[in-house]
Amino acid sequence: MDRSQKADLVAELKSVFSETSVVVITRNLGLTVAQSTDLRLKMRDAGAQFKVAKNKL
Questions:
Q1: Which of 35, 42, 53, 55 would bridge with 31, disulfide CB 3.0–4.6 Å?
Q2: What are phi and psi of 35, to 5 degrees?
Q3: Angstrom distance (rounded) from CA 50 to CA 44
Q4: Cβ distance 24 to 16 under 8 Å?
């Protein structure tokens, strides 16, 4: 990912944060793939978004 792609992603995240009333940031260390998939499905069913971003943006 080059610098311009990172800048675009940061701008997108900034837009999401400014338009949202609740943001949950978590570290999913220790979740299995099945648990992570289940979490994504439950969040989608509830109308929420699940987005993964690198720490080095």
A1: 35
A2: -65, -40
A3: 8
A4: no
